Amino acid sequence: MTRFVTHDLKLAPSLDERAGQDFVSSLRAHVLNHMASNMRARFDAEIAPHLGTQANSRDVLKAMLPRPDFQFYTATRTRAQQMVWSSVRATIERQRSDLAERAARLSQNQANAQGSLILDPDLAIPKNVSAIDVHLMPGSYSFDGGEADIAAGSLYDNGLSVFSFGLMGETLDDIGQSIALWLSLRHPQFQPQAVLDLGCSVGHQSLPWKRTFPSAKVIGLDVAPACLRYAHARAQSMGITAHFLQADATAVPLPDGSQDLVFSSMFLHELPADDVGAVFREAHRLLRPGGLMLHYELPPNEALSAYDGFYLDWDGRYNAEPYYQSYRDLSPPALASDAGFAPEAYFQAAVPSLGWYGEAAVRKAVSGATDVGTDTVGRLADGVQWFVYGAWKEQPE
Amino acid sequence: MSRPLPETARGKRPAVFPDPASETLLAMLLELAREQWVTRNRLATLEHWAASEVTAANTPWNEHYRLPAEAEAALAAERDAFVKGLLAPADSA
Question: Which of residues 27-86 of B touch A (CB under 8 A)?
Answer without folding.
Answer: 27, 30-31, 33-34, 37-38, 41-42, 45, 63-65, 76, 79-80, 82-84
